[in-house]
Amino acid sequence: MIESLKHLPHAASSSTALAEQFTDLAPALTSRQAAIESARCLYCYDAPCTRSCPSEIDVASFIRNIHDQNINGAAAGILKQNILGGSCARVCPTEILCEDACVRNHDEEGQPVKIGLLQRHALDHASFTSYPFQRAERTGKKIAVVGAGPAGLSCAHRLAMLGNDVVIFEARSKSGGLNEYGIAKYKLTGDFAQREVEFLLSIGGIDVQHGRILGVNLHLHELHTRYDAVFLGLGLNASRQLGLTGEDAPGLMAAVDYIADLRQATDLATLPVPKRAIVIGAGNTAIDMAVQIKRLGAEDVTLVYRRGAESMSATHHEQDIAKANMVRIRTWAAPLEVLLDDAGRVRGMRFEETRLDGGRLNGTGAFIEIAADAVFKAIGQSMDPVGLSDEMARQLTREGDKIHVDAQFRTALTGIYAGGDCVAPGQDLTVQAVQHGKLAAMAIHNDIQFKVEASHG
Q1: pLDDT tens, position by position, 361-375
Q2: Which of 122, 168, 282, 442 is the most buried (most CB within 10 A)?
Q3: Cβ 122 vs Cβ 75: under 8 Å
């Protein structure tokens, strides 16, 4: 993947200096800070923070447990609703969810309780003497889960808790999905994603097979025949194209591919780093890419978006991170042409300035050129069409470029369920993928039990 940039020099800074650039973005609370912060919570009845949490964590309850120095109780309450609560505490956009709903926003201080940091504190400091969840009596049923990302892992864990046996099929060499391969390294540091997966699998009853790729060495019709149910947690693995000539030129690549290589690198100094970089996009991935390449040593990084800042899907918090890291944000400019040097490598991009006319985005006829040694696309992901290429998979009803599911995450095919980023509902958030997997697992379990009861009726 990173071969597209092999002509660029490696990171100029030392391995140690670079590692220091990728420590925690938000330092953890000390025990004293957690005690003070938990005391700020009003423990509201019908708490709006809980109602705004996609995974339905009882926020007021776990914060009260922290205040009462019951860290294990706080952690267990979080994990009961969100088994990946540790990573979500680090990457969840709390500023637009629970913390945005906090009633403390409306008092004299105007500062919400630091819910995300308190959730992290509880999970980082819990010390369970035994695994906090026990499996129910075995049902004798076996479910296939495709994808070991947040949705698939959450689904598998809940199914195992309910007494089912689960086999997870994962294309990559590690489990974790976006948490392992797609999150900025300064948000999920070290091997946290893998430690969280190991904890989740400790429930038992879950077998993980890596290197199993749907549509290549794994097929939906086979899974449907061999297992009592199938859950598809496919994620979005294919990068969308700009549709421009020169898109395959050395120096232009998908941001998610570079981030994946960055997260798996054992020595950041070995990564190729452009002196000047352009990032095209407006979401959190675009911000993650721009900030990380700047921290790796790029001198000039410009994030370009075709609309205005108010339309960016990246939160204001994320935009502030970019600005704090000296990333230039250029809005109202649409990519028009990849500029190449005599060797056919990227030397920059030409953009057309844009404006809104009656709600419609139009070009103004004015053009700008930005010099760059590398261009990173962060314009969204789609499902890899290979995964749903067999005859059975083609029968799945689609909603846009995603899989259509009902309220119970059932697809149009009996016995096949789906959740996470590959389905239509939602905002492509890790916390929402976890919730999809959990709810789908309960639907699968109930449907299987109903079939068993009906057969004995």
Answers
A1: 999 999 999 999 999
A2: 122
A3: yes
SS3 184: coil
Band (pLDDT 50/70/90 cuts) for residue 385 is confident
Residue 82 near residue 431 (C-beta atoms within 8 A): yes
pLDDT digits (tens, 9 = 90+) for 220-261: 999 999 999 999 999 888 788 898 888 899 999 999 999 999
Of 36, 63, 69, the C-alpha closest to 50 is 63
Q: C-alpha dihedral over 447, 449, 452, 453, to 10 degrees?
A: -110
All residues at 6 or more sequence positions from 386 whose CB lies less than 8 Å from its CB, including other chains: 213, 214, 215, 216
pLDDT at 427 over 70: no
Determine if the pTM surpasses 0.90. Answer: yes
Q: What CA–CA distance (Å, rounded) separates 220 from 232? A: 9
| Cβ partners under 8 Å of residue 259, min gap 6 | 181, 182, 183, 184, 285, 288, 289, 292
Beta strands, E only, 257-345 = 276-281, 300-304, 328-330, 333-340
Residue 454 has pLDDT above 60, yes or no: no
The pairing of beta strand 346-357 with beta strand 333-340: antiparallel
Q: Quick one: tokens of 182? A: 């797609």
Q: What is the DSSP letter of 248?
A: T
Residue found under tokens 């598998």: 156
Contacts of 258 (CB under 8 A, 6+ apart): 1, 2, 5, 289, 293, 376
